[in-house]
């Protein structure tokens, strides 16, 4: 139920942000909210606690996120009025997801043995564009055990062009 409610709040917020030409600012605020709550377990505990008063939760959220856009401040009040401030993190997640869908933004994880160089990142971006038709935000994870090459993870797809992956495929081929 909370996920569905969070989706509705996120959808309404994105529509209002579009109407008011504040979509980019609200998106940045939602990323800040998501990151802050995700990294601060105490804040999350306050928001979901049935013991903490609703007015206290609202005061904490307003104080922590005082630099956010007025539209986001109104969202806080609406969530508190409807006794839903506990789903703020989910609303941020749903908003970010919907924003990325609107702008065809995908996230890809590229696992490499060493950090990506700009040249390699450009080639990976080209590969992604060929596969899905548009670019993706690339997150680079380093795993020295893959020896070389890369593993590309995009949504539910995984493309293994690592040296370790090729060695494992060769090993399977010899065993069969």
Task: Give a summary of the structure in a few sentences.
By secondary structure, the chain is of the alpha+beta class. It is built from eight helices and four strands, in the order ααααααβαβββα. Strand 1, helix 7 and strand 2 form a beta-alpha-beta unit.
Give short descriptive properties of this protein.
alpha+beta; elongated; 176 residues; four-stranded mixed sheet
What is the succession of H and E elements?
HHHHHHEHEEEH
Main sheet makeup: 4 strands, mixed
Work out the strand percent. Answer: 5-15%
Counting copies of identical and different chains, the oligomeric state is single chain
Structural class comes to alpha+beta
- Flag low-confidence runs: none
Distance between the termini: 49 Å
Supply the number of helical segments: 8
Rough outline: elongated
Number of strands: 4
Provide the spatial order of strands within the biggest beta sheet. Answer: 2-1-3-4
Question: Roughly how much helix do the residues carry, as a percent range?
Answer: 55-70%
Radius of gyration (CA) equals 21 Å
**Global mean pLDDT:** 87
Question: Could you explain how this protein is built, in words?
Answer:
The radius of gyration is 21 Å and the shape is elongated. With 176 residues, the chain is of the alpha+beta class. Strands 2-1-3-4 form a 4-stranded mixed sheet. The termini are far apart. It has helices at residues 2-19, 23-39, 41-48, 54-64, 70-81, 88-102, 118-132, 163-175, and strands at residues 106-112, 136-142, 149-154, 157-162. The longest helix is centred in the N-terminal third of the chain and has 18 residues, at 2-19. The mean pLDDT is 87. The relative contact order is 0.12. 62% of the residues lie in helices and 15% in strands.
């Amino acid at each position: 139920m909370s996920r569905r409610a969070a989706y509705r709040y996120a959808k309404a917020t994105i529509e209002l942000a579009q109407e008011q030409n504040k979509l980019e600012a609200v998106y940045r605020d939602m990323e800040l909210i998501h990151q802050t709550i995700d990294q601060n377990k105490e804040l999350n505990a306050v928001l979901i606690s049935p013991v903490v008063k609703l007015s206290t939760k609202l005061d904490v959220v307003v104080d922590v996120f005082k630099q956010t856009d007025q539209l986001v401040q109104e969202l806080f009040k609406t969530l508190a009025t409807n006794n839903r401030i506990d789903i703020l993190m989910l609303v941020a997640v749903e908003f970010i997801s919907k924003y990325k869908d609107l702008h065809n933004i995908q996230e890809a994880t590229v696992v490499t043995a060493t950090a990506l160089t700009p040249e390699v990142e450009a080639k990976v971006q080209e590969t992604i564009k060929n596969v899905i038709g548009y670019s993706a935000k690339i997150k680079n994870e380093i795993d020295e055990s893959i020896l070389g090459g890369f593993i590309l993870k995009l949504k539910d797809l995984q493309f293994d062009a690592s040296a370790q992956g090729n060695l494992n495929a060769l090993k399977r081929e010899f065993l069969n």
